[in-house]
């Protein structure tokens, strides 16, 4: 019986994390005796999760800004280099043995961490719904090819199938997620390579690049690439490295995570860019059908299976982490039950996305809101990790009162001030479907990503200046609250 916050008594041995058995641990620290594997395992976890059709859509959206093929490829590739920052953040998981949003208490305080934890959970649910919808659309096209029709009954059946496949693995937990990601990735990569070989030669290399202001298009393209990929993972990255031995090399963790995520994301984005020079993938109500129309009949079924498989791998990963997120927020359920609770919400949200709202408009609004919060959050988290050199007082991370990270009644003023600074800058510099900030209007570009570096610099300056003075009992600098 777990306690109300998902904390179980320490266990020993890898049996706590066995394939096809419900994982014993929740959000608590993973004891050294239960740690196993090496950084290479992270490569397949992230590779499988990023073989998802949403990157094809993101690539198509970049072309929709008016960029030509090569310009879109350049901006999408540059944006995906940020996956190596995700890899650097994942080092915290191995060192602390804790999920990302537990480690983040060091930067923001126990209670100061809550607002972004809530937003991250909502973002995670949004991404689960997004991938579920794309998978259902692919299953509907398959149903049409099989003579079952593409109407509401087929969509409902596809939704049920997607939920069962993803929730089943997420409930079992870390070891099963890791193995399924590897198996599915190996099966998907061959078909993805064939997809690229069929779509890329059809790219119109002379399309676009004439109507949109160049600075505006390049800046917004970068926002789409970063927010639709690396930034969406920054608050869950340590969830999959926390089982690694604490002595695992940081460079290995960074490289395995960064490469594992960047390679498939970039490849699929380029396929989406190529497809969008021929058909309106980003503006289509059914992007799956749009890309399928470019393919020969013999490959349409394998293509649709790739879409479904990629959506499954990504949803499994996100659903698992969002369950840990709920525990961090204090939901009195063990990890497996948090997954089941979310299934209800995802089913309802996916139904709305399938039958009520415009798919592409909802995606663009979603990405524009996310960058305003998570670019600054990532800046503070990474700055804090660097200042501490990834050393954390784990007892302090889990302390309900007192401890190294109590700060001022549970709020770290430096972390929250830096976060607010970054959010204000990002909100004033964003050019989204929801609003255009004054700086974006003045400069004719979306510079919302600058909220990340601004927050990181603000945090660094505040913490370093506080270190130079005498820290109070309630709010000490990160470099004075570390315990090996």
From TrEMBL:
Domain of life: Bacteria
Entry keywords, A to Z: Membrane, Transmembrane, Transmembrane helix, Transport
Molecular function terms, GO-annotated: transmembrane transporter activity
Protein name, as recorded: Purine-cytosine permease-like protein
Family: Belongs to the purine-cytosine permease (2.A.39) family.
Location of this chain's protein in the cell: Membrane
Pfam families: Transp_cyt_pur
Keyword Heme in record: no
Lineage of source species: Bacteria, Bacillati, Actinomycetota, Actinomycetes, Streptosporangiales
Transmembrane segments: 43-63, 69-93, 114-142, 154-172, 184-203, 215-240, 252-277, 297-319, 339-357, 363-383, 414-435, 441-462
GO cellular component: plasma membrane
Membrane topology: Multi-pass membrane protein
């Amino acid at each position: 019986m777990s306690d109300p916050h998902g904390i179980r008594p320490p266990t020993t041995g890898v049996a706590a994390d066995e394939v096809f058995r419900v994982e014993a641990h929740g959000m608590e620290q993973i004891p050294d005796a239960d740690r196993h594997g090496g950084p290479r395992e992270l490569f397949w976890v992230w590779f499988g999760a990023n073989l998802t059709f949403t990157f094809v859509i993101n690539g198509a959206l970049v072309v929709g800004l008016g960029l030509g093929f090569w310009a879109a490829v350049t901006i999408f590739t540059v944006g995906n280099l940020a996956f190596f920052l995700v890899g650097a953040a994942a080092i915290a998981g191995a060192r602390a043995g804790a999920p990302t949003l537990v480690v983040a208490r060091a930067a923001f305080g126990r209670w100061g961490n809550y607002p972004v934890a809530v937003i991250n959970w909502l973002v995670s649910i949004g991404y689960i719904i997004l991938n579920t919808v794309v998978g259902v659309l692919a299953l509907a096209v398959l149903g049409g090819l099989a003579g079952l029709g593409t109407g509401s009954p087929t969509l409902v059946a596809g939704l049920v199938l997607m939920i069962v496949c993803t929730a089943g693995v997420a409930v079992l937990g870390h070891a099963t997620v890791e193995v399924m990601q590897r198996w599915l990735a190996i099966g998907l990569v061959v078909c993805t390579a064939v997809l690229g070989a069929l779509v890329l030669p059809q790219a119109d290399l002379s399309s676009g690049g004439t109507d949109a202001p160049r600075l505006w298009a390049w800046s917004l393209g970068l926002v789409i690439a970063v927010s639709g990929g690396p930034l969406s993972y920054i608050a869950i990255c340590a969830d999959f490295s926390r089982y690694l031995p604490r002595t695992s090399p940081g460079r290995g963790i960074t490289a395995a995570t960064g490469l594992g995520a960047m390679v498939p994301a970039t490849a699929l984005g380029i396929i989406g860019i190529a497809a969008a020079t021929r058909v309106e993938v980003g503006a289509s109500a059914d992007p799956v059908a749009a890309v399928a129309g470019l393919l020969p009949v013999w490959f349409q079924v394998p293509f649709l299976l790739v879409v479904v498989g990629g959506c499954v791998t990504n949803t499994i990963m996100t659903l698992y982490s969002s369950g840990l997120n709920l525990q961090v927020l204090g939901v009195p359920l063990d990890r497996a039950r948090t997954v089941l609770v979310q299934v209800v919400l995802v089913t309802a949200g996916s139904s709305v996305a399938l039958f009520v709202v415009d798919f592409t408009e909802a995606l663009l609004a979603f990405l524009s809101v996310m960058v305003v919060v998570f670019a600054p959050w990532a800046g503070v988290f990474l700055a804090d990790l660097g200042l501490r050199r990834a050393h954390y007082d784990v007892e302090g991370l889990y302390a309900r009162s007192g401890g190294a990270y109590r700060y001022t009644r549970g709020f770290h003023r430096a972390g929250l001030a830096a976060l607010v600074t970054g959010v204000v800058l990002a909100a004033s510099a964003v050019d989204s479907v929801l609003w255009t900030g004054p700086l974006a209007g003045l400069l004719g570009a979306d510079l919302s990503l600058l909220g990340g570096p601004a927050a990181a610099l603000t945090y660094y300056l505040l913490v370093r200046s506080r270190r130079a003075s005498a820290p109070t009992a309630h709010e000490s600098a990160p470099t004075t609250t570390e315990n090996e």
